[in-house]
Amino acid sequence: MKTSRRATKIAGTLIIVGMIAGALSVVPVLEEPNYLNLIPAHKTQILVGAVCQFLMIPAYIGFALYLYPILRMENEALSLGFLGFRLVAATFHFMGVIFLPLFLVLGQEYAQAGTSGTSHLETLGELLRTARDLVNHVAVIISLSLGDFLFFCILYRSRLIPRRLSVWGITGVGLATLASFLVLLRLTDVVTPLYLAINAPLALQSLVLAMWLITKGFGTKTLTRGHRHDGRRD
């Protein structure tokens, strides 16, 4: 029981670490209309964004790894799916990290090109910016959402946390997936009130879940309810 309590505390802490790193990974300069001109002067901002996005990878994977032994006792298939989707999301996250240094190269080339011969660099910049948005806000989010849906299904069925919190998570996951498809279909941009509002419920739920895991952990009765004394599942 001490092991599971320690695991939930660490998992809750990793949620907060991931949220802070995610907020710091935002690179405002890339959202400016003339971002290619601004990149050389904002090199530090881009590098900080890359480092912070990289820190999200161990936070997301660690969260799944610490909870996997507990979740596996409740449903092995769903817990494997949850862990698998987290690994897929981490792979896309790493792609997003790689994109950011490419902007530094592009910005340097744009500065050296002067006022002529920059149209191809502007086209390449838009392609790179669109690719980064699709990776970070479509591929990553959908992968995480699929895994988190399985995660909250386990929690709902096992009652390891209050069911209202699991339902809140499932609803938030659905809204986050919707927001990703809106970005994919070019019906909204990433930095818009609509996109942020749709993702707000899941962000708030993640914070509440983190505090719950840190302060209360999983219910002690439900951890043993589904298992016989001889170690076999009911």
Explain what you see.
The structure is a single chain. The chain has 234 residues and is mainly alpha-helical. It has one domain (2-225). It has eight helices and no strands. The two termini are 20 Å apart.
Q: What is the helix fraction of residues, given as a range? A: over 70%
Largest sheet: none
- In total, the number of domains comes to 1
Number of helices: 8
Question: What does the overall shape look like?
Answer: elongated
| Termini separation | 20 Å
Whole-number mean pLDDT: 91
Structural class: mainly alpha
- Order of helix and strand elements from N to C terminus: HHHHHHHH
Query: How many strand units?
Result: 0
Keywords:
single chain, 234 residues, mainly alpha
Brief description of this entry?
With 234 residues, this protein is mostly helical. The chain contains 8 helices and no strands.
Set out the fold topology.
Elements (H helix, E strand, L loop, with lengths): L1 H23 L10 H4 L4 H32 L1 H38 L5 H40 L4 H22 L8 H23 L4 H6 L9
